[in-house]
Inverse folding.
């Protein structure tokens, strides 16, 4: 190999350039980096590795196959040609793929990609489980061995490991049953496909665990920092860390809540044991201020391409915040047929938003109809169009087409994720108050009537990802006359936020299910700590924690997964 000089590009850059140049070559799968192989044996020489579908004999055969011969050297680096092989297709799990899924299915034979956990005191943070990387073999006796990361199995030997992982959904559902609705009553309504509910249920436990154990500082590092340093010459034999935390009332990811957590740390040394204890409120720090999701068109033909845009709002103070974003698509008529697409930054979304973001079509209800013709009594919950109304009272009455506000409890209205809400309210001698709540549980704006009694007036509320509005009056005959919502573009600086666009495309099959499709966008945190970063600061950058609020309250003891947007296939 030639001696590398300052004018040479880095090996990885050369590989990337070659990969792009040969993207349309029918025989070259990809270009990577690795050690140079001679007669099947590796040499300690860095090389460009060209992975090909078929290794042809001679230049003429390569060109006859429509491919390009690989030269002996590219960019000052030697090259290697490796025939691409996909192993174990026939021996894979029931779906005939070479890897398993990170779910609750048991894979036999066992393959990489399957969920796994360790049966010991070690907790695989933050979800309690991880991924089996693959099966390898002992070079001495040929025994099969499972390969995974230390954060999945821990660093102790001799513990049993299992697959699949132990589901936490039963634990979380039972906890919510007691804390949210009470032990005698449990109504937890999901209006989205089961794959999405499983994701969000696991995400809730992960968000709670992250807040309880590691958002502020890694528990073990905290114990080392706050307890006495052993005397000179003493050796640490092992450390113990215990933690307990109260489960919040609604520990869903992306919502602002805190949990009371207790940490207990003990360092065992040859000179004795030192202890440390901490009890404090720990907030869920993985929270978006809001998100707007829209498609480039409202309607598509089967075989068309759907471009989906997500504008994520995060705190302006976190300028380097980035997310791993996935859009989940499903037809409402067949909600188990979920398709996922990773959303990337950039793309056409900012251009689309400049064209359509300020002209969103509102969804309105002007006046309300009786549930039973001729009867003015209205029972809660009351559903009309895309809105669901409920109250602390069991019922109210209609006055013409106006809905009387129970006092003082008022009416709560669940709506699709919106940024602009108009409430038509009728005050009495007392004003009507309206409050808008975003998906993360925060009140984003309030408005109060100021007009004459008995006359309908419009209260305007704006804010990021509004999913619930409360309308109430202290006393008197006050009414709700209508409501409109839309998803127009807003300036995030008012809410001390910054926005980032993510986009994805979905190619609909020509036999795509016709009708309404829903989109649920899930954003997870990324750990982008640089090499050499402060370890305490890096410990706060937990990757994989869901920061988007994908669940909203739609009534007493009732929740629903939020459809971020819908489109029609027809």
């Amino acid at each position: 190999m030639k001696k590398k000089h300052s004018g040479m590009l880095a090996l990885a850059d050369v590989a990337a350039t070659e990969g792009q140049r040969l993207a349309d070559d029918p025989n070259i799968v990809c270009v990577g980096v690795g050690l140079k192989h001679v007669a099947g044996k590796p040499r300690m020489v860095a090389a460009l590795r060209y992975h090909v579908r078929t290794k042809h004999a001679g230049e003429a055969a390569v060109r006859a196959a429509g491919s390009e011969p690989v030269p002996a050297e590219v960019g000052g680096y030697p090259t290697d040609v490796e025939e691409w092989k996909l192993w174990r297709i026939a021996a894979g799990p029931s779906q005939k793929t070479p890897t398993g899924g990170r779910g609750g299915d048991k894979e036999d034979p066992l393959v990489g990609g399957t969920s796994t956990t360790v049966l010991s005191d070690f907790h695989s943070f933050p979800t309690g489980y991880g991924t089996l990387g693959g099966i390898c073999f002992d070079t001495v006796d040929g025994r099969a061995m499972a390969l995974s990361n230390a954060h999945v199995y821990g660093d102790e030997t001799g513990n049993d490991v299992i697959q699949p992982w132990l589901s936490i959904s039963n634990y979380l559902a039972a906890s919510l049953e007691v804390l949210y609705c009470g032990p005698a009553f449990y109504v937890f309504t999901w209006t989205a496909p089961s794959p999405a509910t499983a994701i969000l249920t696991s995400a809730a436990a992960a968000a709670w665990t992250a807040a309880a154990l590691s958002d502020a500082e890694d528990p073990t590092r905290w114990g080392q920092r706050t307890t006495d340093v052993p005397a000179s010459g003493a050796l640490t034999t092992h450390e113990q860390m215990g933690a307990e935390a109260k489960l919040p009332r609604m520990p869903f990811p992306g919502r602002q809540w805190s949990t009371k957590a207790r940490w207990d740390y003990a360092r065992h040394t040859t000179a004795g044991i030192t202890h440390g204890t901490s009890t404090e409120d720990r907030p869920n720090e993985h929270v978006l201020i809001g998100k707007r999701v829209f498609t480039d068109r409202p309607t598509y033909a089967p075989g068309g391409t759907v471009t989906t845009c997500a504008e994520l709002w995060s705190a302006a103070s976190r300028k380097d915040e980035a997310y791993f974003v996935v859009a989940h698509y499903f037809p409402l008529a067949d909600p188990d047929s979920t398709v996922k697409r990773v959303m990337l930054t950039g793309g056409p979304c900012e251009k689309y938003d400049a064209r359509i973001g300020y002209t969103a079509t509102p969804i309105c209800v002007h006046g309300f109809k009786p549930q039973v013709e001729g009867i003015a009594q209205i029972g809660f919950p009351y559903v009309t169009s895309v809105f669901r109304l409920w109250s602390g009272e069991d019922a109210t009455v209609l006055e013409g087409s106006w809905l009387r506000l129970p006092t003082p409890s008022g009416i709560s209205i669940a709506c699709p994720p919106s940024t602009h809400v108009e409430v038509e309210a009728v005050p009495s001698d007392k004003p009507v108050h309206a409050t808008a709540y975003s998906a993360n549980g925060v009140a984003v704006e309030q408005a109060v009537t100021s007009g004459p009694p008995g006359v309908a007036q419009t209260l305007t509320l704006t804010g990021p990802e509004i999913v619930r509005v409360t309308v109430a009056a202290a006393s008197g005959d006050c009414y709700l006359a209508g409501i409109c919502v839309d998803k127009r573009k807003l300036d995030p600086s008012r809410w001390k936020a910054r926005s980032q666009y993510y986009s994805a495309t979905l190619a609909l099959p020509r036999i795509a299910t016709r009708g309404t499709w829903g989109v649920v966008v899930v954003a997870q945190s990324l750990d982008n700590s640089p090499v050499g970063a402060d370890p305490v600061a890096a410990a706060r950058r937990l990757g994989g924690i869901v920061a988007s609020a994908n669940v909203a309250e739609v009534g007493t003891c009732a929740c629903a997964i939020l459809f971020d947007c819908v489109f029609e296939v027809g």
User: Anything to note?
Assistant: The radius of gyration is 29 Å. The CA atoms of residues 26 and 67 lie 6 Å apart. Confidence is low (pLDDT under 50) at residues 1-6, 86-98, 183-188. Helices lie at 11-21, 59-64, 150-153, 169-181, 194-213, 219-226, 349-356, 535-539.
